[in-house]
């Protein structure tokens, strides 16, 4: 009976996420000329900042120590992914800098946040937001450096979510609680953003193409296999338990983030951007198999 309950819980967690992605994919196929820039702009400048603020500064289950701890774990697993990624790319004779980002920066935002929310509620959502915030920070620093081979703080300084991240960290550290009207406003904006970013993920997948399939499927598999392995190592070494271990496992096991392609398209040569797009499509498609397995393990052993 308990085992059956886990399967019901798994369905409750996975179905809403995959269903909304499917809506976006269907809409993108039916409207190939649809310009999703307005969704991206809203999410980047309003929705995601509101989501971060609500899940971090307005959280009743998160403190600064936990926020800092999981931010540190995120740097640790990204560094571990980088070592594995460089080895894989060397073996495949691919560019170890320009094509590294999809191996090290998983989709902890579009996919990881809603899955952790449905799996563990508000407490899991807050921890997942700590991880997603650091991944976002790395996108606008390390991600751009990888794509352009040049380091610049300009994109970071013009990123609204980063300011919200630092403000939220400040409020957590000094235990400042935001007023109720601000909590309610950011909650509405944040939850609407979850729908929009999942839909936009589906739309993006409907337009991206795959190239060099044989080698890119190896890279995609490396992303999906290395995530759980590194996560289990961190969980075991640091003795993480319950929802904290589950959130780390789920977040680290996500496929490559769409933002890797957007940055590559802006800063890299087309051949590298095309390869990154292919890795994202393949890893996201394969994740429809791997995510239920990972979430099942998380719910069974870390609930």
- Total beta-strand segments: 0
Biggest beta-sheet profile: none
**Elements, N to C (H/E):** HHHHHHHHHHHH
Q: Could you say what the CATH architecture is?
A: Up-down Bundle
Computed CA radius of gyration, to the nearest angstrom: 18 Å
CATH topology: Na+/H+ antiporter like fold
The CA-CA distance between the termini, in Å, is 16 Å
Mean pLDDT over the full residue set: 90
Query: Regions with pLDDT < 50 over 5+ consecutive residues?
Result: none
Q: What gross morphology would you assign?
A: globular
| Share of helical residues | over 70%
Count of individual domains = 1
Number of helices: 12
Label the structural class.
Answer: mainly alpha
Strand content: under 5%
CATH class: Mainly Alpha
Tell me what you see in this structure.
82% of the residues lie in helices and 0% in strands. The chain is an all-alpha fold and 303 residues long. It is globular, with a radius of gyration of 18 Å. The protein is built from twelve helices and no strands. The two termini are 16 Å apart. It has one domain: Up-down Bundle (Na+/H+ antiporter like fold). The chain has helices at residues 2-30, 37-56, 64-91, 101-104, 108-148, 154-157, 160-173, 180-207, 213-238, 242-252, 258-267, 270-301. The longest helix has 41 residues, at 108-148. Helix 1 (2-30) crosses helix 5 (108-148) and helix 11 packs antiparallel against helix 12 (270-301).
């Amino acid at each position: 009976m308990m085992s059956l309950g886990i399967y019901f819980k798994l369905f409750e967690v996975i179905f809403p996420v995959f269903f909304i992605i499917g809506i976006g994919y269907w809409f993108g196929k039916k409207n190939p000329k649809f310009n999703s820039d307005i969704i991206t702009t809203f999410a980047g400048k309003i929705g995601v900042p509101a989501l971060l603020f609500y899940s971090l500064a307005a959280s009743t289950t998160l403190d600064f120590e936990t926020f800092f701890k999981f931010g540190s774990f995120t740097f640790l697993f990204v560094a571990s992914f980088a070592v594995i990624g460089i080895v894989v790319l060397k073996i495949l004779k691919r560019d170890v800098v320009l094509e590294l980002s999809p191996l090290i920066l998983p989709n902890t935002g579009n996919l990881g946040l809603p899955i952790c929310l449905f799996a563990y509620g508000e407490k899991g959502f807050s921890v997942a937001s700590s991880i997603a915030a650091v991944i976002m920070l790395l996108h606008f620093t390390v991600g751009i450096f990888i794509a352009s081979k040049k380091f610049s703080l300009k994109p970071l300084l013009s990123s609204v979510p980063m300011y919200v991240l630092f403000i939220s960290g400040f409020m957590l550290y000094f235990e400042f609680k935001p007023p109720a009207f601000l909590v309610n406003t950011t909650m509405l904006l944040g939850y609407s953003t979850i729908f929009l970013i999942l839909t936009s993920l589906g739309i993006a997948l409907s337009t991206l193409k795959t190239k060099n399939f044989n080698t890119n499927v190896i890279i995609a598999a490396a992303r999906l296999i290395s995530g759980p392995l590194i996560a289990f190592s961190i969980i075991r070494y640091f003795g993480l338990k319950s929802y904290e271990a589950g959130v780390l496992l789920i977040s680290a096991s996500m496929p490559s983030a769409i933002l890797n392609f957007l940055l590559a398209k802006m800063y890299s040569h087309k051949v590298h951007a095309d390869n990154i797009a292919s890795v994202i499509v393949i890893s996201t498609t394969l994740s429809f198999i791997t995510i239920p397995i990972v979430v099942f393990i998380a719910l069974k052993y870390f609930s």
